[in-house]
Structure formats: C-alpha cells, structure tokens
Amino acid sequence: MENPLEQFVVRPLIHLNAGGYDLSFTQSSLIMMIGIALITAMMVLSMRPKALVPGRWQSLTETLHDFIFGMVSENLGEETRKFFPFVFSIFVLVLMGNLLGLVPYSFAYTSHISVTAALALFVFFVSIAVGFAYHGLHFFSTFVPPGLPFLMKIVIVPIEVVSFLSRPFSLAVRLAANMTAGHTMLKIFGGFCISLGIILGVFPMLVNVALLGLELLVAFIQAYVFAVLTCLYIKFSIELH
Amino acid sequence: MGLTPEELAQKIKDAQQRQSQKPGSSDLEKEGMDSGLAMAARAATDMVASIIVGAFLGYWLDKWLDTSPLFMIVFLFFGFASGFFAIYRLQTGRPFAPWLKKKDKAQGSEDGAAKGEEDKQD
Questions:
Q1: Is residue B15 part of a domain?
Q2: Residue ranges covered by each domain of chain A
Q3: Preferred mutation among B111, B118, B121 to probe A, highest tally of A CBs within 10 A
Q4: N or C, where is chain A less crowded by C-beta within 10 Å?
C-alpha cells in the first residue's frame, strides 16, 4: 500500500533559490494561487450584475458575505467595518484551501503547519497591534483580570500569559491537524479499496464516500473556527478583558 | 408561470412567514456550527496547546536563567491551569474566570460567539 502521508509532500514546480533560501514555486503555492484566483473571480464576476434580486452566483456570494459579516458584527459590534475585510479574507483563504484540498490530485495547503502557522501568527500580531493601537501600553493589563487580590495575581498572571501565547499555537495546530487527519483517513481507506479488489473493495469505498461528506463539513467548520477565533482575539484586544 | 401578481405576493408573504418562524438557512448553519461542532473543534487543541506552550515557556526560561528544571515544572502547572481555563471560557463563552462577581460576568457574557447564540436558542 502506498504511504498515506506521501500526499503531503511539497513538490517544487519551478526551482528558485534566492540568497540561500529555497523560494521554489511549489504545488502548494500553485493551489494557493488557484484558490485566490477562484475566490477573486467569484467575488468580482458574481457581483457584476448588482441585481436587486440576485441570481444564483450573486446570492451565493451574498450569503457568504452576510454569514461572515453577521459573525463579525456579533463579536465586534461597532468596530465591525474596520475588521471585516481582514476576517473575511482569512476565512475565504482557509476555506479555499480546505475545499480545494478535497479535489483529487489537488493539494490541501492548509494541511501544512507552515501555512497555518503563518496565518495564525499574522492574526496574533494583528491582534497585538490592535491592542496597542487602542490602548497603548495599557494593553498589558489584559494579563491582569480585574478584582483580584494581590496574591492571586501572582498565580493568575502567568496563567494568562501562557493562555495568551498559546493562541497562535492552538490556532495553527488545530487547522493543520484536522486537515492532515482527514486526508490521511481518506488515503488509507482508498488504499484498502485497491488491496481488497473489486468486490470487497466496495465497502471501503462506501466509507470513503461518507468520509468525504464529513471532510466537507470539517472544511467549513475549521475555516469558520479560524475566522471566529480571529474575531475573538481582536475583540479581546479591544475590550482587554 | 400562471401566477397573478396577487398570488405571487401571497406566496412571497407565506414564504417569508415560514422563514421567520424557523431560523433562516444561513442562521441554521451558524447555530449548528456555533453550538456544538465548532466548540468541540476548539476544546481539545486549546487545552493541549496551553500545556505545550506552558512547558515550552518554562523550558525556555530555564535555559535563559539556568535554573533547570524549576520553571519547566512550574509553567507546566500554569499550562494545565490555563488549559482548564480555556475549556471553562469556551463553555461559558466568557473571557472571565470563575472568581469574579456575577455583575462582572454579565458584562462579558455577550462575547464568545459560541455561547450567546445558544442561550437564545434554549
């Protein structure tokens, strides 16, 4: 049976080497660009009619927009418009990665911790920047919950620091681990299909059909969770506690 | 389409009423994601991540201050504690910790995309 983890190997398509750094254009970058092109095309083309009564594509785009807009405004209230483009871009990029990864012969770039960690760190630093922009140095009081006796502060502050620092880590690991696990499962059952032959191989194939459905759900949920957490982190930076 | 404008208006009205009674399709999707699945997706990693980050922070402090293994042990416990906090916050949807008064908690209860919606639903 083929190695189920082989699908995650990043293969360079165009070799590039700049100052000792490997900057090759890989299949991961290619899929990422396809994803961005697809979503841009969808946004631009579907909204071109600007119809009052939307057609199929326009209503799909509007639903996507309203879905995220609702989630952001629930969390950020009046600040929604400032941060909506950021959250929406993150959501769409992650969603595209998850969905395109399910296409055969494609590659799930969100299954790589380097991609998700870059996104998560970006979110993390944005939330810190927002905190400093809104509160200046007062932002550090986010580590000190109000109404605590001094002795408790000694214990609670390190806990808060740890939980603050674990944000980007859990954000990155959750997405990458979920995608990796799903794709590995698919590959393993696909391998069973081949090794069991035509008659018995139908059963693992049925499992795979069900798994694909589950993976579709996971693709949406993980993108959604990523967006929700982006929102929450920005919210915590604005409200401090 | 053999519909007069009046019939069509009636149909639209009916459909709107049906829509307003149950949560709209996109809302429904959101409820499902918010209440159960999205929270489940967060719970495990939040906890594990806190512990790992705690241990790593301790290890790094030890290396820096040459106090091995003091900080590693201490921060491992901080990591555990912050892991449990993470679960608590996820559950209640509140950024606050349990020692705070009720009044303070009420303020914070709006957040946590996770919980607010669910309360309404119940």
A1: no
A2: 16-239
A3: B111
A4: N
The single residue listed with the structure tokens 């693709």 is A219
> Domain range holding B113?
30-121
In a domain, B86, yes or no: yes
Closest residue to A235, CB basis, from B79, B104, B111: B111
d(C-alpha A8, C-alpha B64), whole Å? 36
Q: Decide if B25 is inside a domain.
A: no
Q: Which of A143, A163, A230 to mutate to test the interface with B (most CBs of B within 10 A)?
A: A163
| Span B66-92, pLDDT tens digits | 988 889 999 999 999 999 888 888 877
ipTM above 0.85, yes or no: no
Distance CA A137, CA A36 (A): 37
Total structural domains in chain B? 1
